[in-house]
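Researcher: I'm preparing a figure for a lab meeting and need a structural model of a single chain. I don't have an experimental structure, so a prediction will have to do for now. The sequence is pasted below. Please return the structure as C-alpha cells so I can convert it later.
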Amino acid sequence: MARKVKWGILSTAGIAKRRVIPAMKQCEIAEIAAISSRSLESAKAAAAEFSIPKAYGSYEELLRDPEIEVVYNPMPNHLHAEWTIRAASAGKHVLCEKPIALNAAEARKIREAREKYGVKIGEAFMVSTHPQWLRTKELVQSGRIGKLRSAAGHFSYFNADPKNVRNSVEYGGGALLDIGCYPVKTTRMVFAEEPLRVSACIERDPKFKTDRLTSAILEYPSGQCIFTVSTQAVYYQKMQFFGTERRIDVEIPFNAPTDSPTRIFIDDGSQLYGGASQIVESFPICNQFTIQGDLVSKAVLENKEVPNPVEDAICNMAVLDALFRSAESGKWEVPERL
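Model: Understood. Here is the structure written out cell by cell.
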C-alpha cells in the first residue's frame, strides 16, 4: 500500500472546515498533518475538531514544517496567488481553491513560481474528477448525443451579508469569480475547446459593487454556451448539453451530494417533456473532495501532473477576464491565450 502524503491546511476558512477537511479524512493516500491560522487558538480548535496532529498560529510556521508535502490553500480569492506562490517558494506542492487567482496575469505568476521552485500546483476544481462529469465528457466526446452544439447553465444562491468575503470587491467577491468559473470550466472541459470570443452582461450590487447577476455567452469552435450566475437569487444549479441527437442534463452539477447517488439524464427529444425517452445514469455515493485529495496525492507520489494544472487555470481565468472586459466594453472580447 502506498504511503500517505502529508498535507497542511493554510487557514481555517469555512470551505476547508465544512467540506474539504472532512472529505480528506477519508482519503486513502492523503493525510492532513497540520493546520494553520493567523490565530493559534483558532488553529488549535480546528485541529482538535478534526484530530489534526499539529496546529500553527501563522501560515509561515506551517510552510516551514519539513514534514508537510502539499499545502491546501482555501483563503479568500485575493490571497490565492500570494500564498500559493509563498508555499511554492517553501518547496511545497499546492492545491489552491478556485479561482486560482484574481486574473490570468496572477495565474501566470503562479506558473512562473511552479517552474522556478519545481513543485506541482493545481486548481481545486473538484467537479472535473467527479464520476458524473467524467461520464458526461465521455458521452459527449464519443458522439452519444451527436455533435455537441450548445451548453446552458445556471448557478445561484442568495447572500447579502456585508461581512461575507463573497460580497467584497477587494477580496475578489462576486458571482463570476465565485461560481461563474464553474460553467466556464465544465464547458471548456466537455467541448474540449477554448472559447473564441465571449460576451457578458453584469449587474452590480449598489453597495458592495460586486457583480450580483452575470449572464454570459461563450462562442466555441463547435458551438455555444450560455449561462447565468447570481449571488442574490434562489439557490439552484443546473448544466445541460445539447447535441444534434440527444441532450444531457447534469442534475446537481457543482455541489454534488455526498449522501446520495448523483444522476445525469440522457434524452433523445422524442417526447417534449422527457419520460419514456429519457435514460437515467446513476453514480454511486462518493465525495468529490476525497477523490480530489487522493488524485493530487497520487500525482505527487508518482511525479505526474495534477488534475487541473496551472495551464488550465490560466485558460479559465483568461475567459473570466474577457467576460469582465465585455461587460465594460459592451462588445465581444477574445480571451488571451497561454
